[in-house]
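Quick one:
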Amino acid sequence: MQDREGTTTSENTPSAGHVRPNEVDLRLAGNRMTSGGVLRILQLRWRIALLCTAVGIAAATLYLRTATRVYTSTAMIHVEQNTPSVVLDGMDHSARFDNYLYTQAELLKTTPILGEVVKQPGVRDCPTLASATDPIPVLRNLLDCSVGRKNDIVSLSLSSPDSKDAADLLNHVVQSYLDYHSRNTRNTASEILRILKEARQAESVELAEAMARILAFRRANGVLFLDSEKGNIIIQRLGMLSDELTRVELERIAAQVSYESMTALRSDPSKVRALARSLDPNTIAFTQEQAALAEILSSAEVRHAGLLQKHGPAHPAVLEAAAECTSARNQLKRHDETQVQAIVSVVEQRYRAAEQKCSELTAAINRQRELAMDFNAKSVEYAMLESDLKRKEKLCDILESRIKDIDIRGDAGGLNIAVLEWAKASTRPSSPSASRVIALAIMLSLTLSAVAMLACDRLDDRIRDTGESFQTAGLPLLGSVCVTHRLTREKRRGLIASAQGADLYAEVRAALCTPHSRGCGGTILVTSPDAGDGRTTTVSGLASAIAHTGARTLVVDGDYLKPAQHELFEVQQSPGLSELLTAEAAISGAINPTQIPGLDVLPIGARPAVVAQAIGSGACLRLFELLAVAYDYILVDSP
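Output:
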């Protein structure tokens, strides 16, 4: 079938075949493409390429003029991890973790940092955040943090339609980050320094007492020569136990410092977590649940402040927002108390264990002293005094070095942070990029022009004569039907009943009804691959044309998917073919005459599904044999 200029019917089997328009156009277009080639298309359609390119460039230019310009400001921070020793030697307190920079990059986008930025004067009223109900998520989306691969530098960037806003907001974020670390580091360092000084003062008193005891012993007993003690196993064991007690005593003091620091800072969970992280880098100081609760609280406070400013304190929405703030604050407080209790419990266990170990070693030393006293009371007593003196001297030296270390560095387990580059207002927009937009517009224009040229060339390659039809389809041509536009159901009904409609199918009728035609007489099945190809129209029009010759013609509606012949000929749908196949009606009662003399219609019936199941059955074959006796031509509309 040829749709625009004519509907072409080819003889493929004893029934009339129906050729799809798009298949015909595609085959013909392929032949012409092969012969003409791409060069022919360019020669004929170069105006389309020129027009598409001009339109693309014009659209890109219009977009560049109307699009909102976005400015990006950048800043760079150098972050170096600093975890100094607090009490003990030989312990690695400067451990570096591969992910600590990524942790800082994520910390920059958390609510504790951004919340302080939003509280700064004028930030809420800046053009970038003025229209935001909750500015923290908006600021988080605008902020981007990246970590250097081979250095300790965190790069920050912030994009905004206002270049000054971008620089100011980014500098506020950097300053808020510096203030956050400064507060935590300063409070933690001062508390540890106070505890270490108290421990050093107590040890200094004990050191003075030990020196006084040795001096008194020498005055009372004179100078002792203790060379023979080198071979005394008991004295050697006493010295080993004394060294071990010194080491364990240091551990106990470290645990005591940690425990007393935790207890003193227990009312401030953030300081407890910072101190725990400085004493033990493996301590969990920040949880996702805590971050989520802090973000909920900050959002609730921002919302309450906005509603309070807008409606006043007695408005129901303000009271509801205040209740949400109180609930979020209580949840965060309970979470902090639970976490602090867990951290303090762990530190207390370490402290108690160290005390127990010191008690056990002290008891062992006392037992060893009793054994040594039996051999040489005076020499052992002097050795004990001397060992105790050395232990206390060593302990005082260690405490003094730690105090100096914290005094000089000014931190305890914090970070060395330096701003390498503050944000500056950008004079050139980062988006949109003129070169990228123009290049993309040209690429899209060329692609669109190629598609448009191929589509136009295909649409122009229609079948215009019988030679092209035979060349494309490869089937004998029965005839063509001129259809200039898609007809409505009422117009098709009138065209079928008129002589003009019969003349449209005269050529096809003549090809089918000649004595030498393979489709002469019998049953003609009209089918096509897709719905809407024109099967129903072809069956009704061809049947009308054959009936006008005086031949007895029957139209059988076998389209069980979308039956329409009863509507075209204005007859009842039931009884019909389904009732004949199930023997629920007689042939005379199912077949309906039409307004066209010699043309009858057998509709689908009330149950089209029965027709689908009975195709090819013995009942169906016997029915068509009976119909073939009564009619010269039977035209079947298939699904």
